[in-house]
Amino acid sequence: MIDDAAADAAASGAVGGVLDPEHPQGTFVLEPGVMAPLVARIATSEGSGTHRSMCPFTGAPLVTFPVSSAEDVAACVVRARVAQRSWARLSVRERAGVLQRLGRIVLDRQSEALDLVQLETGKSRRAAFEEIADIAQVARHYAVRGERYLSSRRALGMVPLLAGVQVHRRPVGVVGAISPWNYPLVLALSEALPALLAGNAVVLKPDPQTTLTALWAAEALDDAGLPAGLFQVVAGGPEVGEALIEHVDHIAFTGSTATGRKVAARAGERLIGATLELGGKNALYVTDDVDVDAAVPGIVRACFSNAGQLCVSIERLVVHEAVAEEFVAKFVRAVRSLRLGPALDYSAEVGSLTSAAQLDKVTAHVDDALARGARVLAGGVHRADVGPYFYAPTVLDDVPAQAVVTREETFGPVVTITRVDCDEDAVAVMNDTEYGLHSAVWSRDVGRARRVATRIETGSVAINDGYTMTWGSVSAPLGGWKASGLGGRHGAASIDGLTRQQTVVTARGARFGATLDSLYGLGGDTPSRVLTTALEAMRKLRMA
Ligand code: NAD
User: Fold this and answer.
1) 271-273-274-275 Cα dihedral, nearest 10 degrees
2) Is 277 annotated as catalytic?
């Protein structure tokens, strides 16, 4: 899979052929010395082994780092637990200050983060920038709204006035986060920030391919003033993730549905909370009243941002027959004109797939569809001329229902087209999947699109947008239905998952003898008559 040029680059330790606008004459090199302070942040001990990641743009080695053993993970959680006790005693406002500063750091130092994210994932700069924008949004949102989300509230007591009820939110303790490689900065921090704000500590296990970005996030939190021990990174593969679940108080998992089921099973055995953000087979419906020219650019982006390696990416286009001919022709033309490239600037529209495994999966899905009679309208080829894992943005038509690409998440730059002749059929096709993560409807008639949305079984629905405004609306919950997950991120949803509620009820009348015990002490049917009168009064007054 690695070509000769990449192999030469690998031998020299350089990431060859990557355009770096800050050094236009040079070849981009990740100096091991420069990476050393980041690598030193991994919670590891002697002899736990090493992992070598590569740069998807060329296949050349990127960094070799030590991995964590099960004992390292356990020690890390103990450290986190100690740090968490003092952190939880600070006010929400003090904790929010760290998030405010982090938001500024991510914007100010975006160039370093963008380079790392791109070199680890192979994504385009514009897809990498989505990560910067997201973390700036999430940090600001929780810093500003944190006090409101976490404040204690009063509730109506059993006996009004005599029972004083307060409901508090307490941190769960140590939150374990396990994340995939596709949005490494977002997925390192988007659950960690509300978790920290709520008074928890976080131990993160990123995917081995994107460990440097996770370490950069740890450094940025440090620079934002987060006390030591509260955000630690353990490194390695599935076994490190499994070890983490054994020790933490809540697991925030993002990844495939297959792994999510295993994580949920173990969390269930341990009786700890689990937030599961899993896969999707997202559909977008193009109604018969769309302005095709206006819709096409947004729909292309909905399908091919981050080369389709995005949980909310569109993999199925459901097109009304009345506009199908015009829409498909213009859509395919736009897809064919997308610029692919490995540039560390904004010149490329689509980047690389992140690994050989991704390339193999995408190739297998397309080959299977073709073998079953599907037609390629655009792409369908490995673009080794651009880089070892680049794959051309692909549009497939006439894909049979039994094809793998119809049912399974491809997680790559491949979209299928299905024609329908009414909204009813569109909804049936969109819901014909085990997944329920995200969907979109494109229509001039927003009322109609909203009516369609009420019948789609997904956690989020975008109207006249692919995913950006849905993901970016961080005050609203985002989470999957069906096999796409449990619980959600953003807004109050994250706080719900990352805190425990505690109800404290004070019998206020105790000071002057007005208690339930004194009522029961009256004997006979007096207590029940008094209570019946009180309950009847509460019913009439509609107290709740
Ligand atoms: P994956 O499930 O293979 O791996 C995800 C993480 O889990 C990695 O860090 C991996 O090392 C770890 N892991 C693997 N097996 C484990 C185990 N048994 N116990 C504990 N940890 C384990 O996922 P992937 O294929 O690398 O990532 C892509 C998937 O992530 C896609 O399905 C995508 O849709 C999904 N995703 C979902 C969201 C969302 O918000 N819903 C966001 C991004 C990605």
Assistant:
1) 160
2) yes
What is the 309 CA–ligand 1 centroid distance (Å)?
12
Residues 452-461 have pLDDT tens digits of 999 999 999 9
- Terminal CA-CA length for the chain: 65
Query: Which member of 277, 349, 408, 409 is catalytic?
Result: 277
Structure tokens at 295: 């819709």
How many Cα atoms within 13 Å fall on the side-chain side of residue 51? 21
Which residues lie closer than 8 Å to 261 by C-beta, 6 or more apart?
none
- The torsion angles phi and psi of 91, rounded to 5 degrees, stand at -75, 160
pTM (2 decimals)? 0.94
- Mean pLDDT for all residues in the chain: 94
| Contact criterion met (CB below 8 Å) for 214 and 188 | yes
For ligand 1, say whether the CB of 280 is within 6 Å of any of its atoms: yes
In this prediction, the residues of the chain whose per-residue pLDDT falls under 70 are 1-29, 32
409 pocket-lining for ligand 1 (C-beta < 6 Å): yes
Residue whose pair of structure tokens reads 């490190």 in the numeric block: 240
pLDDT digits (tens, 9 = 90+) for 334-384: 999 999 999 999 999 999 999 999 999 999 999 999 999 999 999 999 999
Name residue 63's beta-bridge partners. Answer: 53
Cβ 460 under 6 angstroms from ligand 1: no
Contact 173, 81 (CB under 8 A): yes
Q: Maximum distance among all alpha carbons in the chain?
A: 95
Does residue 242 line the site of ligand 1, with CB under 6 A? Answer: yes
Expressed in angstroms and rounded, the spacing between residue 197 Cα and the centre of ligand 1 is 25
Strand partners, 42: 233
Query: Which residue in this structure is represented by tokens 């719900």?
Result: 496
> Residue 357, exposed/middle/buried by CB under 10 A (0-12, 13-18, 19+)?
exposed
Distance (Å) from CA 195 to ligand 1 centroid = 20
CB 98 within 8 A of CB 201: no
What is the structure's pLDDT at 35?
85
Our answer on whether the CB atom of 213 is closer than 6 Å to any ligand 1 atom is no
Specify the 3-state DSSP secondary structure of 326.
Answer: helix
Collapse the DSSP code of 199 into the 3-class scheme (helix H, G, I; strand E, B; otherwise coil) and give the result: coil
Q: CA torsion sign, 72 to 73 to 78 to 79? A: positive
CA of 275 to the centre of ligand 1 (A): 13
Quote the DSSP letter at residue 17: T
By residue count, the chain amounts to 544
Instruction: Give the DSSP H or E segment for 328.
Output: helix 321-336
Token pair, residue 263, equals 């994580």
Query: What CA–CA distances, in Å, run from 434 to 195, 265, 279, 283, 331?
Result: 30, 19, 10, 13, 27
The phi and psi torsions of 458 (rounded to 5 degrees) equal -135, 155
